[in-house]
Amino acid sequence: MTDRIREFLRNRRDDGPIMVVDLEVVAENFTKFARALPDTRVFYAVKANPAPEILNLLAEMGSCFDCASVVEIEQAMATGASADRISFGNTIKKEKDIARALQYGVRLFAVDCEAEVEKIARQAEILGARDAKVFCRFLQDCEGAEWPLSRKFGCAAEMAPRVLEHAHRLGLQAYGLSFHVGSQQTNMGAWDAALTTASSIFATLAERGIELKMVNMGGGFPTRYLKDVPAAEAYGAAIFEALTKHFGNRLPETIIEPGRGMVGNAGIIESEVVLISKKSDEDEVRWVYLDIGKFHGLAETMDEAIRYPIRTERDGDAVAPCVLAGPTCDSVDVMYEKKPYDLPVSLSIGDKVLIEATGAYTTTYSTVGFNGFAPLASVCI
Ligand SMILES: *Cc1c(COP(=O)(O)O)cnc(C)c1O
Question: What is the 3 state secondary structure string of the chain?
Answer without folding.
Answer: CCHHHHHHHHHCCCCCCEEEECHHHHHHHHHHHHHHCCCEEEEEEHHHCCCHHHHHHHHHHCCEEEECCHHHHHHHHCCCCCHHHEEECCCCCCHHHHHHHHHHCCCEEEECCHHHHHHHHHHHHHHCCCCCEEEEEECCCCCCEEECCCCCCCECHHHHHHHHHHHHHCCCEEEEEECCCCEEECCCCHHHHHHHHHHHHHHHHHHCCCCCCEEECCCCCCCCCCCCCCCHHHHHHHHHHHHHHHHCCCCCEEEECCCHHHHHHHEEEEEEEEEEECCCCCCCCEEEEECCCCCECCHHHHHHCCCCCEEECCECECEEEEEEECCCCCCCCEEEEEEEEEEECCCCCCCEEEEECCCCCCHHHECCCHHHCCCCEEEEC
